Amino acid sequence: MADLPSHISLPGKKRPHQANERTPVYALVGNPNCGKSTLFNALTGLKQKVGNYPGVTVEKKIGETYSQHGKPIKLIDLPGAYSLAARSPDEAVTRDVLLGRRADTPQPDRILCIIDASNLERNLYLVHQLLDLGRPVILVLNMMDLALKAGLQVHASRLEKELGVPVIACEAINGKGLVDLKLAMSRVDLSLAKHRWDVPAQVAPAVAELQASLTDSDGRSPLVARAEALLLLTDFDTVRVAGSTPLSPRTHEILAHWQKRWEGEGTDWAGTLVASRYDAIAKICTDVVQSSGEVGPSISDKIDAVVVHPFWGWLVFGGIMTALFISIFTLAQYPMDWIDAGMSALGDWVKRSMTPGELRDLLTAGVIGGAGSVLVFLPQILILYFFIGLLENTGYMARAAFIMDRLMSRVGLNGKSFIPLLGSYACAIPGIMATRTIEDPKDRLVTILVAPLMSCSARLPVYLLLIAALLPTDAIFTKVGIMIAMYALGTSGAFGFAWLFKRTLLKGKPPMMIMELPPYRLPRLRDIALHMFERAGLFLRKAGTVILGISIVLWFLTTYPKLPDPAATSTQQIAHSFAGQAGHLLEPMIKPLGFDWRIGIGLITSFAAREVFVNSMGVVFGVEGADDDTTPLRDALRQATWPDGAPVFTALVCITLMVFYVFAMQCVSTLAVVRRETNSWRWPLFQTFYMTGTAWLVCFVIYQTGRALGY
Amino acid sequence: MQISCMPTDQKLSQLAIGTSARVKDFPKAGAAFLRLREMGLLAGTMVTFVRSAPMGDPIEIKIRGYHLSLRREEADQITVET
């Protein structure tokens, strides 16, 4: 950035943070549910860059906006936080960026803080901590309409006078007040907050010592040092995340010394600090807020009387989840069919316009086929994200977690794990990406580890084919029964393993369920759409590249080495290929489960996406067009025999194979996403072993018991 | 945690639906209680018991004009006076 941000530097005075050669950086902070994302979207439009903070799976959003003078302003959207004393990795990132502890993020010059006027006291707690930081702060007073409805008159000008920072009344949802906000953001003369509060006498000496040490040993500026000292005292169970600079040993020593002393004296130092901040806030609020007395129940109260009602609540919940399911499995079918048709038309076009050869096969079977198997999931993923966005935007998400918490607590998780697990019925990838709302890192990891056990939609074609092979007649109720049994098996597996992991591997405190139930709001489609496409883009980039790559590798493995006889059928060819050889190699391992080498090929090719199994069986048994109509393939499966003439796909094998698909970890793109979300290969590897190990063991028991019983 | 013999003292989890009370005391240590304090639940704060979740746990309370859920396990350790 070459141009001078003249609108922010202070001519003639010492410039803060050497801002003269760079674009001014604003950090956008606020409590969760106060309209922060809406404001961020309104200010930056589509000029956003979404990534990750290195080493920690917290979303990093940086956008660009312009001052009134047309100069660029960088805006960092920090994760929502109730306090700078972090309780989750998200809040830890917010704290560390504001304290300048992260080398990977530009230090904010100024702070833009959005607060909910209808909930002023709690929102001012964060503001109170921010004012200590010694950086200019602009307050955005959002949701004034809601405050008025609750009988609260909030005087922005009085708040401005009390705190000594600009306070802009805004309605982020319809853009009201944005011009005033831009004007304030463009001001050159933003001074530091004038608000002062007295640190309680008991802790003041400790604050002074810590401040001195942070200035001398950790290189903080005096004001930031004071803020950080105060924070260290309320943040004793501190959340550390990768990428933040550690504290110097000296500061640690002082902190430990004081904590030991206070513990001995029985001083509640953290509580005293919190209480003195709330005391200061209460004084401000008596001046700023005028209450018109009691008002009746709000619209939100009225909605909640139904939505979390012991009876109607279940009905609403069931209705919403059914709608989600139906949309994912039926509504998505149309665009999925279009994508399928489009991709095969493209394949046909390439086949017609190119001369037959290896390159053409690579393009049609590997590239186009691979791209098709990625894109075909996109409609379901978009619908899932649309629902997640809608539920989050309206405030129902918190209610769903509230309702489901009791159930989830039985396996040691909390209500927030419910939606990620539910989403995994469509595809584990968006499910795993949705676990970011779970604050506790261990709970989040457990949810990620068990999410792929929920039967995803890619398993559906496999179940359908095997059920058809099992029951060629029209026994519809038995068929549906088997299908439900498979879903139930996967779901109970997920809950069982969650229970096991929470008791053994990832033992932790029982999760809390301290969660705000925000007032209901009308959804804002623009925000939902933005979120939806952002996530879908992430899916295409991450999962897409993996699936495409695997498809090309698998094409190679099923095509080479070529049979010398050009008249060989595709069945003979695949038997001769690397994949075929691998199937033979695999046979001793899967024979105890009743699977032969041809099923082995199907298991190998399932690594691209499980539904490829159907296609592979089509190739292996020489049935053309197996994707569209499973009847010929079904019959081919039923006729398949072992070398000794015994049928391969007996009822027992069909069941065993379905159970194998329920438990086994076969999806490489899920593994890639798990690696990304856990920042190591350790967990995806563990997941592969525990899931596939369970699959083998369960199938072994079923098959061998079945055989012993004479099936 | 100090337990008072005053008849007006009870656990937050035992409040009747829709009633309000003043927070008297709760444990000092523990991540849950520190978070509750930072979210504005302090000794002397007025709290309203709004409802229990359909399965009885967690519960929903109202403090400082907003709604918050917490598990009975925590609410059991918060004393209030009516």
In short:
The complex is a heterodimer of chains A (711) and B (82). Chain A has helices spanning 36-44, 89-98, 120-131, 144-149, 156-163, 178-186, 204-217, 222-234, 249-265, 269-288, 299-307, 312-331, 333-353, 358-375, 378-394, 396-409, 418-423, 428-433, 441-450, 460-470, 476-503, 525-559, 570-576, 578-590, 597-605, 612-620, 631-639, 651-663, 668-678, 682-708, and strands at residues 25-30, 48-52, 59-66, 72-77, 110-116, 137-142, 152-154, 167-169, 289-291, 515-516.
Low-confidence stretches of chain A: 1-19
For the report, how would you describe the main beta sheet of chain A? 7 strands, mixed
Helix content of chain B: 10-25%
* CATH homologous superfamily classification of chain B: Ferrous iron transport protein A (FeoA)
Q: Indicate the CATH class of the domain at 16-186 in chain A.
A: Alpha Beta
Structural class of chain A: alpha/beta
In CATH, the topology of the domain at 16-186 in chain A is named: Rossmann fold
What does this structure look like?
The complex is a heterodimer of chains A (711) and B (82). With 711 residues, chain A is of the alpha/beta class. Among the domains of chain A are: 171 residues, 3-Layer(aba) Sandwich (Rossmann fold), CATH 3.40.50.300; 88 residues, no CATH class; 167 residues, no CATH class. A seven-stranded mixed β-sheet of chain A has the order 2-3-4-1-5-6-8, sandwiched between helices. In chain A, strands 7-9 form a two-stranded antiparallel sheet. In chain A, helix 3 packs across helix 10, helix 24 packs across helix 25 and helix 29 packs across helix 30. The longest helix of chain A is centred in the last third of the chain and has 35 residues. Chain A is elongated and about 90 Å long. The N terminus of chain A is likely disordered. The longest helix of chain B has 8 residues. Chain B has one domain: Ferrous iron transport protein A (FeoA) (SH3 type barrels). Chain B has two helices and six strands; from the N terminus they run E-E-H-E-E-E-H-E. Chain B is globular, with a radius of gyration of 12 Å. With 82 residues, chain B is of the alpha+beta class. In chain B, a hairpin with a 6-residue loop joins strand 3 and strand 4. In chain B, strands 1-6-2-3-4-5 form a six-stranded antiparallel β-sheet. The model of chain B has no long low-confidence stretch (mean pLDDT 87). The interface between A and B is large, with 45 and 30 residues. Strand 10 of chain A pairs antiparallel with strand 5 of chain B.
